[in-house]
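Can't attach files on this board, so I'm pasting raw text. These are the components:
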Amino acid sequence: MMKKIEPYIRAVNYYETDQMHVVHHSNYARYMEEARLDMMSQIGLSYDKLEEMGIIIPVLELHNVFTHAIHYGDIISIQPSLTKLTPVRFSIHYELYDAGTGEWLNRGDTSHAFVDRDFHPMNVKKRFPEVYEALLSCLAEEEKA
Amino acid sequence: MMKKIEPYIRAVNYYETDQMHVVHHSNYARYMEEARLDMMSQIGLSYDKLEEMGIIIPVLELHNVFTHAIHYGDIISIQPSLTKLTPVRFSIHYELYDAGTGEWLNRGDTSHAFVDRDFHPMNVKKRFPEVYEALLSCLAEEEKA
Amino acid sequence: MMKKIEPYIRAVNYYETDQMHVVHHSNYARYMEEARLDMMSQIGLSYDKLEEMGIIIPVLELHNVFTHAIHYGDIISIQPSLTKLTPVRFSIHYELYDAGTGEWLNRGDTSHAFVDRDFHPMNVKKRFPEVYEALLSCLAEEEKA
Amino acid sequence: MMKKIEPYIRAVNYYETDQMHVVHHSNYARYMEEARLDMMSQIGLSYDKLEEMGIIIPVLELHNVFTHAIHYGDIISIQPSLTKLTPVRFSIHYELYDAGTGEWLNRGDTSHAFVDRDFHPMNVKKRFPEVYEALLSCLAEEEKA
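---
Top answer:
Structure tokens for the assembled complex are below.
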């Protein structure tokens, strides 16, 4: 059975706004990173521990659609979900909501590789099967190959 | 004839790195913004002046492909190009190079709307035809409708 | 009686690290801002509401002592305290701890003015006595003139 | 004779503003870092090379006085000067000007230690006398012990 991931909730910080009076768009990459690392913690994969084990997870690709602006004073809720997993890569989709009203605001996607400390590709399924299994536990059935 | 846009060149800042020893990926949205606003200055559209005129240009969508990492000490060169222009929207493509070696590193895209101070859509071709014309001057012939 | 301010607790974000493998020092200004605005919320002064009322609170001076580095994976606790209040200015002191171990890490100070939307000085005690009183409620007795 | 340090000049970026319509104060720590590393490059000390040699230079203390706000569209000029140098520490003072008008805007100070990769104090005068001499070359006569 698929492990349910709790949404990541946080307040918007003042310093994240710009003179357009909205959150500067570069912060969404940061919000998605926070939500992604929180999701990994929920399945027992603290990223500081992974880096200690020698597993580095850079971003290969990032996509954001900014349908609604967000503002200082807002509380946002980000629901990440694993959409793809191979022995060497994975992808995450993010839905961003207003945590107060429940209104849907924006969405994003990131894709990632597993690499070692020298940035060489790593087959994590072989090298660290328990890490691969933990990720697999939150992949939707319909996404499994 | 199409106006040639000079590339935007800048050094990587130390504070843009993270503990992976590379530039954190959220900075590319910022680099692209710098290159975009520099491009607009080159065609006579200083963004601070546009905001004073009441033209606000938010980002609607952003996409980045991170093929190569960049590092503190690198000098990067970003070549922006206008890929689409309508009376209410435009899109820009960015190619990022190592300014020292000329090596291609990464690419990105952003798309934008023209809105007024209340974030209502604005037909810039009607309201500010000289702004539209300036942008049109750097649109490649093959992209013109 | 003096109102007790609860400490502000938050996790360190990955994107706040730099290639020295510690939190980049520019983030402390941001952490202090988060703790300051949280402190103000605790006494009924949400800063988004203050700005709507036309009260702007810029930083006049900032000081940080970085005795210990902090790292991704750490949870920090910041205890702000109001150290000075006049009708036109105030100052806040911050003590930063490791929220897990209770170990003291760093400290900082900021001072602020009340200004209007045109950045002209504002006597907040006269113009908004309820705002002044709320701040006064968390000033230590020994700091009162 | 004392080596003259050229000022560090750069444009303010849009993403450095906040909804107060000024540069967010946390960026000054970054501007000072840029000016400091540029100053070190001017005397032959590229910080990426220093880190490769095992010399790490964390910030111990930071102080900023924000007399004037700065805005998107401004070009700023920062004049750093070495105010103190010992075998294990140094301090830098920064004066920030409007590069267009020459108007003085703000000032700041940082102090630093030399440490090794494990963050243990390093006597740089003993370990890397050429680094110490390069720094000494830009210390004002009246600051020399």
